[in-house]
Amino acid sequence: MKKGYVLVEGHGEIGAAHNLIARLAIDLELPLTWAQPVRWKNLHLRRGVEKGVEFIRAKQDAGALLLLRDEDDSCPRSKGPEIASWIRERNPSTPTAIVLLHPEFEVLFLPCLEAISGKPIDGRQGLLAGTRWDGATWETRRGVKEWLTEHMPPGRAYKPTLDQLPLTRMIDISALRRACVPCFGTLERALAFLGGSLDSKGVYPPIRT
User: Fold this and answer.
1) Sign of the C-alpha dihedral, residues 143, 82, 25, 16?
2) What would you report as the CA-atom Rg of the chain, rounded to the nearest whole angstrom?
3) For the chain, what is the total number of helices (H) and then of strands (E)?
4) What is the pLDDT of residues 70-128, one digit of tens each?
5) Longest dimension (CA), the chain
6) Domain ranges of the chain
7) What DSSP line would sit under 158-198, residue for residue?
8) What pTM value is reported for the model?
9) How far is the C-alpha of 90 from the C-alpha of 83, rounded, in Å?
């Protein structure tokens, strides 16, 4: 069976992204297994994206490619299609998708705080009991990592390399869907696109008409 490959930015996202995508793939009944994500440099730059596409071209077992990164500066509605155009120009060998998590991966924890707060994280102190998101919408505030630190016990800070994977394991996919977090919806649509495009070389998001 062909594999889906994922390129990510940070150390913490290697395990976290793999856990989330593998669970979503099962939930969506996608005909792909997913390799451990690869940390990739310069995913925010055209040259980094293009090198990533070429890296996957050399993988004989590659069936799909997902580029997954945070985006806290530009609007994903415009930036995502721009990056997709760079990918199309490289004529990728597999269906390929770009997903921008806005403002960062940790936004996916926010709709699940009721299930996460007050519980230890791999034996360490976790978020304070009763922690609730106080933003007007899920994606309104930059610095979600810092916000998580503010809602941990004194002396305890959120650290992606330690906390991102165990918190991802605690994500309730159904709760995320009900919350309608925009970037999570994009991720699900991108995975469905990849799973349904294994015999083609399409790019997600598609060209707007």
Assistant:
1) negative
2) 17
3) 8, 6
4) 999 888 999 999 999 999 999 999 999 999 999 999 999 999 999 999 999 999 999 99
5) 53
6) 3-104+179-204, 107-178
7) --HHHHHHHHHHT--HHHHHHHT-HHHHHHHHHHHHHHT-T
8) 0.94
9) 11
CATH code, 3-104+179-204: 3.40.50.261
> Cβ distance 56 to 24 under 8 Å?
no
Q: State both tokens at 179.
A: 């919350």
Instruction: Provide the pLDDT for residue 209.
Output: 59
pLDDT in tens, 42-53: 999 999 999 999
The token pair that represents 98 in the structure block: 């770009």
DSSP 108: G
Distance CA 51, CA 92 (A): 11
The token pair at 10 is: 């940070």
Q: How far apart are CA 153 and CA 209, in angstroms?
A: 50
